[in-house]
Specification:
heterotrimer, A: FAD/NAD(P)-binding domain, Alpha-Beta Plaits, seven-stranded mixed β-sheet, 9 helices, about 20% helix, globular, C: alpha/beta, Rossmann fold, 2 domains, four-stranded parallel β-sheet, 14 helices, 6 strands, about 55% helix, about 5% strand
């Protein structure tokens, strides 16, 4: 989004293709992002834009005429003529026109098929799920004050011509079903860090209350396990970089904001690099329990609690405790379905992520001729770092046109 | 340091650090050159193996510590430990190791080295003798049970000559013949 | 067949042969093969272990048939030796030098298989179910797979689900329990007997607590630990679990309508006759 905005501001027409129905990717689910411990959209400094409260992306995505946002759209084919790509985009039916929707909420009252992904969704518009269609939907279409709804919408396909392609498809959080020792997928009270972030989000299902997914009982004890699937030759050999930081971000939120709940973190090495070391210090001071070791066994009990045995390699002892929620800091994997696109475009891969075309160059964002990559699509990355890479991409594109 | 034999002597005060020049720096290469020992140095001591082991809770040296000892060259401690012989060979550690260190296989290698030096637990030595003398670990004693079931009393096809011949010429034979 | 099954569990041998007969599998006793040595031979004499098992593999290659075994120890040893000799050229040359003296050569052409995998792959669940005349009534059975059948996965290539489905095919209900992957302790019996007894106890206890009425195993060593060792548990811990342990082919044989004496049900150390009451039809 940063790249789109800055390109657009520089006068370059940009088409932003987003596979889901709303923009933002994983960032929508982060709740408070590091390093500002704030909703991620707001930490850019461009507060001078008129017409918005705090979130500058909110209206720029719609109001900046140089940006053409295509949500619910996917790139199905690209012909490889660098500088003159022909990109075929397949779009799902646009039931609600985002430019007309005022988020008045009338349709949502009339029918269960209309919903809002999040108050900060981009574009700011209601979405329609045809699978939940009911009688109220037709009424909503008639009564929508801005006539934004079209239930007859059809999927479309269009081929556009572009000079450059920027890949910013983000990452996918590994769901460690294959790691049977953690019982993920077999019992509801074992979750991943992104799932925990959604639980902590006041806009989430439980309005931010930390309760067990299985039975809604208040969580008293959380255990987090680091390096699940990362630094592991059987799954992902690399370190996912940011999970130590965001695990502790979550641990601090829980310790400071959720009364009566405490957190243990089971780790191999604590990699809160750079200025993020403060999360580690803060969490120790907040009373988070750190166990350097690994999990021996996870035994879900009938009453919803989980009995966990861990080995503490500093004390050389095995410990057993009962927890309510087990959170796995699982690996940041490449986005699903990337291999087809990468092959079509002739992109190089490092562990499945898009990598620099020239391995010896320190310019990480050039993925090929007129092809650029930024953000987690290139490998695990922080949010500020991703935005910085986006600006590097913009700079490269602008320079290529002079 | 006090010696066990003397009644009086200087009290135990400080324990001297282990002198690394006295360790066997070739031990790690020795293990790495043995079957499946190649990934030994990839160990980053995460202790997943120890967490996975069902019985290490009663060991003085845990699996990840034994690997550390091999890497540092503590040859005599590792080869004379009781721990390596208590390994269940269940492969849980090897299966869960994130760096694909073949721990169980490495412990097999250590046991082989220990056996070369004659350090084999009594009952396992007895098994070695069984193999060399009888050519099998379990001998049929209850022939009538087999006959009741319609099976031949002697196990069809089971030979003892081949294995005896082989093992007499290898370390098993040397161990069974009274050890080194 | 190995040396342990015929000596300690002839009923397992009989069950395997009877099941094979009923399902149309042709088993041929290998001639001139030996005991595999068990992991304990591997511990003291790696090279001897390679040659002994290499010889068995070479004989199978000469016969042109896959090796099928009902013992996890033999399965683990043979499959691991084959895997090692296929990948390690130096050891393969050394072993073949010894085998040449006996007129044999290891090439790695045949497959080493466990009886349950052969049942699953070659016969298939559907065919087995079709031949079952006396299915079980959903009685709870917990499965102890055994370490050398499951691990290391890159060597054994076995999926536990196969045995789950085979057990279900007989009409029994699979009872899951937390310690399903844990070792029975057989290998450590010579080195530390109390430890082995403790492991057996933990397994049986876990099975019982999960609600199992019977247990099933596919290896004579595991059978020994879980079946016979229940007597040892009474001595060491004063605990009586009374959990009958059946070798899987025994269960299958009963479901196929084979008479219980033919498979030596009475020879199981913890009385297993009560299983007969769970057969329908």
């Amino acid at each position: 989004m940063t790249a789109a905005v800055e390109l657009a501001d520089s006068g370059i027409k940009t088409v932003l293709v987003e596979r889901s129905l709303t923009m933002g990717g994983n960032a929508l689910d982060l709740y408070k992002a590091f390093p500002t411990d704030d909703c991620f959209y707001c930490f850019e400094g461009n507060r001078w834009r008129p017409g918005i409260r705090k979130c500058f992306y909110r209206s720029v995505m719609i109001d900046q005429p140089n940006i053409d946002v295509r949500t619910g759209s996917e790139v199905v084919d690209v012909s490889r003529k660098p500088g003159e790509f022909r990109v075929r985009i397949s779009a799902s039916p646009k039931y609600v026109e985002p430019k007309k929707c005022t988020m008045c909420g009338l349709c949502m009252d009339l029918s269960r098929a209309f919903y809002l992904v999040s108050p900060q969704c981009q574009p700011q518009a209601v979405l329609y799920d045809p699978q939940k269609a009911d009688d109220g939907a037709g009424r909503a279409e008639k009564e929508c004050p801005t006539k934004a709804i079209n239930l007859e919408a059809e999927p479309t396909e269009e081929t556009i011509r572009v000079s450059d392609i920027v890949i910013a498809t983000g990452y996918h959080e590994m769901k460690p079903i294959d790691m049977v020792e953690y019982e993920y997928g077999k019992t509801p009270n074992v979750v991943t860090q992104l799932e925990l972030a959604q639980m902590l989000d006041p806009n989430g299902k439980s309005s931010g209350a930390l309760i067990r997914p299985s039975d809604g009982v208040q969580v008293r004890h959380v255990m987090m396990v680091q390096c699940v699937g990362s630094r592991d030759e059987r799954y992902h050999p690399y370190c996912s970089k940011v999970c130590c930081v965001f695990a502790l971000k979550h641990a601090n939120i829980i310790m400071h904001e959720r009364e009566g709940t405490n957190v243990s973190v089971v780790y191999m090495d604590m990699r809160t690099y750079d200025r993020h070391e403060r999360y580690y210090r803060e969490s120790r001071q907040a009373g988070v329990e750190f166990i350097r070791g690994r999990v021996t066994r996870v035994e879900p009990q009938k009453n919803g609690a989980i009995d966990i045995t861990v080995y503490d390699s500093l004390l050389d002892k095995y410990f057993k405790s009962s927890v309510d929620l087990l959170v796995l800091s699982s690996a940041l994997e490449p986005q699903v379905d990337m291999t087809g696109l990468m092959e079509r475009l002739g992109l190089s891969s490092a562990n499945g992520f898009v990598t620099a075309a020239d391995q010896l160059s320190e310019n990480e964002v050039i993925a090929g001729d007129h092809l650029y990559v930024c953000g987690a699509a290139a490998g695990p990355a922080e949010v500020p770092e991703s935005a910085t890479q986006a600006r590097a991409v913009v700079s490269m594109i602008l320079q290529s046109r002079t | 340091m006090a010696e066990a034999k003397q009644v009086t002597g200087p009290p135990v005060t400080i324990i001297e650090p282990i002198d690394m020049s006295q360790l066997d720096s070739k031990f790690r290469d020795e293990i790495r050159s043995m079957p499946n020992g190649e990934e030994l140095a990839a160990c980053f001591a995460c202790s997943t193996c120890t967490a996975a082991c069902p019985i290490a809770n009663q060991w003085n040296y845990k699996p990840h510590q034994l690997i550390r000892m091999i890497l540092l060259g503590m040859r005599s401690e590792v080869l004379s430990s009781k721990e390596i012989w208590e390994c269940l060979t269940c492969f849980q550690c090897q299966e869960r190791c994130p760096q694909k260190v073949r721990i169980t296989d490495i412990f097999f290698d250590c046991k082989n080295l220990a056996a070369e030096e004659g350090k084999v637990p009594e009952k396992i030595l007895a098994l070695a003798k069984e193999l060399v003398d009888k050519g099998q670990l379990y001998v049929v004693t209850a022939e009538w049970e087999r006959e009741d079931l319609g099976l031949e009393p002697a196990v069809p096809g089971l030979s003892t000559d081949g294995i005896k011949q082989i093992l007499r010429g290898t370390r098993t034979g040397r161990l069974a013949g009274g050890g080194t | 067949m190995g040396c342990s099954v015929p000596a300690n569990y002839p009923n397992y041998e009989a069950a395997v042969m009877k099941v094979g007969e009923a399902l149309g599998m042709e088993f041929e006793y290998m001639t001139d093969v030996s005991c595999c040595g068990s992991p304990n031979l591997r511990s003291i004499d790696y090279f001897g272990w390679l040659v002994v098992n290499g010889r068995t593999l070479a004989i199978a290659e000469k016969n042109g048939h896959d090796i099928v075994t009902p013992c996890n120890g033999c399965f683990g040893s043979l499959k691991d030796v084959q895997h090692h000799l296929k990948h390690d050229e130096k050891d393969r040359l050394r072993v073949n030098k010894e085998l040449k003296k006996m007129g044999l050569e290891f090439k790695g052409t045949i497959k080493v298989r466990h009886i349950v995998e052969a049942l699953y792959t070659d016969i298939g669940i559907e065919e087995i179910q079709r031949k079952i005349t006396r299915p079980l009534d959903g009685v709870g059975v917990s499965i102890h797979y055994g370490c050398h059948l499951l691990r290391p996965t890159d060597v054994t290539e076995f999926k536990p689900e196969m045995l789950d489905e085979l057990v279900r095919a007989t009409g029994a209900r699979v009872v899951e329990y937390p310690l399903w992957k844990q070792c029975c302790g057989a290998t450590v019996l010579p080195a530390n007997e109390p430890l082995a007894i403790r492991l057996a106890r933990d397994k049986i206890r876990s099975m019982k607590e999960a609600g199992a009425e019977y247990a099933t195993v596919v290896c004579p060593a595991c059978g020994n630990q879980l079946d016979l060792q229940q007597i040892g548990l009474k001595d060491s811990y004063g605990e009586v679990y009374d959990l009958p342990v059946l070798l899987y082919p025994q269960m299958l044989a009963l479901a196929l309508g084979i008479n219980e004496d033919a498979i030596g049900l009475r020879m199981n150390r913890v009385p297993a006759d009560s299983m007969l009451a769970h057969l329908k039809g």
